[in-house]
Design a protein that fits this description.
The complex is a heterodimer of chains A (496) and B (433). With 496 residues, chain A is of the alpha+beta class. Helix content of chain A is 36%, strand content 21%. Chain A has a 6-stranded mixed sheet with strand order 3-2-1-4-15-16, with no helix packed on it. Chain A has a 5-stranded antiparallel sheet with strand order 6-5-20-19-18, with helices on both faces. Chain B is mainly alpha-helical. Classes of the chains: A alpha+beta (496), B mainly alpha (433).
Chain lengths: 496, 433
Amino acid sequence: MNARIVRLTYVATALIFVLVVMTTYWQTWAAPGLADRQDNSVKRVAEFTIDRGLIFSFEPRKRLARNREREIDGKTLFFRRYPQGALTAHVVGYSTVGRSRTGLERSLNDYLTGATGNLSTLVDKALDELRGRPVQGNDVVTTLDLEGQQVAMDELGTRCGAVFAFDPRTGNVLVMASSPSFDPNLVEESFERISRITADCRPAAPLVNRASDGLYVPGSTFKVITASAALESKEFTPDSTFVDPGYCTVYGKRVNNFDTSSPFGTITLENALAYSVNSVFCNVGLKLGAKAILAQARRFGFYVRPPLETPVDERAPSGLYRNGELYVPAHDSDVDAGRMAFGQERMLVTAQQMAMVAGAIGVRGRLMETQVVDRIVAPNGRVVTRSRPTLVRRAVSKETAQAVARMMRLAVERGTGTAAQIPGYSVGGKTGTGETGIPGSNTTWFIAFASRDEESPAELAIAVVLERQSGTGGTTAAPIARAVMEAILSSTRENP
Amino acid sequence: MSARSRELVGIVVAGLIAGAALASVAIARDAEVSAGAATYGALFLGLYLAAHVVVRRTVPFADGALLPLAAVLTAFGLALNYRLDPDDAARQALWVVIGVGVLVGTLIVLRHDYRVLESYRYLFGVAAVVLLLLPSVPGLGERVNGVRLWVHVGPLQFQPGELAKLCLIVFLAGYLREKREVLAQGRLKDFGPLLAIWGAAMLVIVQTNDLGSALLVFGIFLAMLYAATGRALYVGAGLALFVAGAAVLYDALDRVRERVTVWLHPWTDEPVYCALNGRLELRQDCASYQLVKSLYSIANGGFGGTGLGRGTFTSTDGSELIPYLRTDFIYSAIAQELGLIGAAGLLLCCLLFVVRGMRVALRAEDGFSKLLAAGLTFGFALQTFVIVGGVLRAVPLTGITLPFVSYGGTSIVVNFLLLALLLLVSNRANAPR
């Protein structure tokens, strides 16, 4: 019988060995994956014992998120407060016990809790733990311009929409405003007050970051991309002339200009962009084909989530959508290139993406990675990471960029975007009015860049989008863009 | 060093571990070593020293490692219960005292020859079946969490499944010792009682929905059958029967199906039907809530753990994050606060207990003693595997206790009884002739 008992011993030993292996698996191999899960309340609550890193704006330097200590059952817990309230709610997000996290609070959680970083951060953390002190997280300094952000939120008011502004030379995000907003201080205890927020659109959806996650019909702002594709194809020049009949025939159907009362007659491509002539772009689109235009859109960053430090699911990729999914046409004939060329045809874009388009045109074709974090600083003052300007790619050639920039400047000088003129600066912009089919419910746009003069690269690029407007992009969105740009440019002039 | 001297040293070490753990919890909670913690520590050491004295008198040749290992395991349990709820720790401590009392009593009563048990084998067999089915008797059983495990008799309540396990092992040791030659020949009519046990195990699942106890009982039965007959074929056939029976029940019983579904797919991306509230919910928010939260607790421990008293088991408003933490999920609390090091240490203690127990079986001379010790030890190992494996998602989760560690009176007392039997067998095997 002894040989069998020895075998049973092996089996029993193996059973317990399996337990050791499984414990090791969950505590080492699988632990990071579990820690990232949204429903991991254990980890989430555990992290409230950490003296979480603060979040700052760049200019003026103010605290966007701070901690309030509370003693519960002999434990010191750190709860979040957001001194700026609704102003930066979407970028900063919130960190709560009950409703998990959003925004930078979520995506930078490992830094804010001191869980990542280099060896010395980890050693500091381990020493804090051994001494029984609260672990201190790393502080985050964002690139946000708080005055510009305030102007953007004031200008948006009760309207639903978004403003995204950044420095196209570095990619640093200056304004990321989404309206309606919410007070993140209310999320934990009076969430019902947030769910009661109303605005000029329904549902108001205050929690959605419309600047990076709101998908809108681009309207005529898409003509910037069509114009870029046209010039890159070498088949057109800014001086290519067209005869505008006031409409364009697509598959036997007439596509009218926004205002068909007075056809422009003979017009150059340059003026067609300045005055936003649909028929011209319709014909350019038909000539280029959908795939060539989409290829250009991709070079501007379409079809991938635009880069930013916020969580992946708070940023939407721009492109053609079908049944709620990104859609890549296999053949030119799958998409109506004529309608797409001036921004209809199930093309959906975000404010962030369109600001990136304007920015790339403003800095001679160089598409930079947008970034909202300037640096992350350890408790001892040492900089853990510092962001650097990163080139995504050249979206268009220098010549094309300069030609399209000239067209956009023309649009602000004497075209549809005159409301965005800023004294002392050379502004190039493009209006957009996306018709949703319901009167008084247009999506209006203005995208723009601003430089000191026509020769120097743009210092600022912006996209403004508004929902449910009765006016056009030139009358509704362009004034907002001007006000925000003026606020940012005046502060940078004071602090060059 | 003699076995008794080693036992004494081991108990002192276990006492130091318990004292350090309780002090650590007290410091984490109140920043000072409270009187309560010190009392528990002293009580713990005194209790086991008393047990040691009785062991020295009654079973002087018994294995010297078993009692200290049990002491360390109860130290884990007491420290964790003290950390989670000091009131429960007082009750748990009381049960440990009663358990040691039962150990001492058993040793004294059976010190001359425990083999009298063999002559009552059928009584034990009947008792096992009755105990297993007791919770499903109307008026006695109480359904907790969909599983009938508890029996109420007046103010007393206990889990008869734990005791049934022990009775079954005694019965099987006697029965298999008697019948092992004929069983090895494979005559069909001799399998009647064994098939009856299989049937009883299946009936237990149906009646009480308690997959864990059925698995445990049947696993012990197969292991002892193999040790007695040496026929691997029986084990294979038995396993096949069990799997077939479980598969039929899987279709028939929602409870079993749910346990298996939760085991295979604890997380869903889309809401699924939730039987608890009849709405569509993510499974991690409904059926697999306990398991998933327990895994989060384990993962939060990491390599070194958070430290005793510093783990996260409650939300900031004091509400529980992990249900059934002190009983079914005590292991996930240990794994969080003591980390991989502590959890592996606990498992190592279990492993040593198993190895020592099997050594007792190897050294025993008669078939009954061998089968008894092997069955008791294998039962201990299998029970550890079923509950900890369930918590670790290695097998479907079932609500049975972790021997010596989990909060629960019946479990503690029965495991001390198991320890007493092992010591008795060991004493006889080692005794000079």
